[in-house]
Amino acid sequence: MTIRVLIVDDHPVVRAGIAALLAGEPAFEVIGECTGADEAVLFAEARKPDVVLMDLQLGDGPDGVNATERLTALPDAPKVLVLTTYDAELDITRSVAAGATGYLLKAGPPEDLFRGIHAAARGETAMAPQVAARLFGHMRAPAPALSPRETEIVQLLAEGLINRQIATRLFISEATVKTHLVHIYDKLGVDSRAGAVAVATERRIIRN
């Protein structure tokens, strides 16, 4: 049975490369290419792909995690296989929480992608080895782990946002941001914003 695949990526060269790879495999049929989350959801509703290959960064619109959450909530939802360059803990945990069946890296060999699509179509988990190691390392870490919200805040700190901007971005109060920062500093063993970013980056909790 042919697996119907939708590619979601905002880079045309990347989409063309993936499509060319899959075209050489009779088990796969690329039924469409989309550049953003809204387009992908509309396409999936109309064409019912079996597997969606999802990049995480999709230009200025909603990101791949948002798209994954919306796709997996559809009736007869497709399986979503994240295919990205990012292996930070933040991206992995958000994608899994959104309902992604698997998480692969673009730097991996084509055979990993082929196996991942087959696994996703069967409803099985497909993880790049380094992604699986990071995910299990997070689950088994002896140190207190940052919550998803705390991880988001550290990522925004790394992007240079101040408390007021973080509060606006996350639709929370500045007081709540300050409370989260206290917990973040305690968990990471630091006493400053710069220290939190440095430790989170070193541990690959956030992306550079």
| Largest β-sheet summary | 6 strands, parallel
- The global form is elongated
Strand order of the largest sheet: 2-1-3-4-5-6
- Unreliable segments (pLDDT under 50, ≥5 consecutive)? none
Q: What is the percentage of strand-forming residues?
A: 5-15%
Mean pLDDT: 90
How do the SSEs run, as a string of H and E? EHEHEHEHEHEHHHHH
Number of distinct beta strands: 6
Helix share bin: 40-55%
Rg for CA atoms: 18 Å
Q: How many H/I helical runs?
A: 10
Terminal CA distance reads: 41 Å
Return the structural class: alpha/beta
Question: Would you kindly provide a written description of the structure presented here, covering whatever features stand out?
Answer:
The protein is an alpha/beta fold and 208 residues long. The protein has ten helices and six strands; from the N terminus they run E-H-E-H-E-H-E-H-E-H-E-H-H-H-H-H. A six-stranded parallel sheet has the order 2-1-3-4-5-6, sandwiched between helices. Helix 7 crosses helix 9. The relative contact order is 0.11. It comes from Amycolatopsis speibonae. The modification 4-aspartylphosphate is found at residue 55. This is Response regulator.
Primary descriptors:
14% strand, elongated, 10 helices, alpha/beta, six-stranded parallel sheet, Sig_transdc_resp-reg_C-effctor, single chain, transcription regulation, 208 residues, 53% helix
Outline the secondary-structure elements.
Layout: E1 3-8, H1 12-23, E2 28-34, H2 37-47, E3 51-54, H3 64-72, E4 79-84, H4 89-98, E5 102-105, H5 110-121, E6 126-127, H6 129-140, H7 148-158, H8 163-170, H9 174-188, H10 193-202
Parallel strand pairs: 1-2, 1-3, 3-4, 4-5, 5-6
Helix pairs in contact: 2-3, 3-4, 7-9, 7-10, 8-9, 9-10
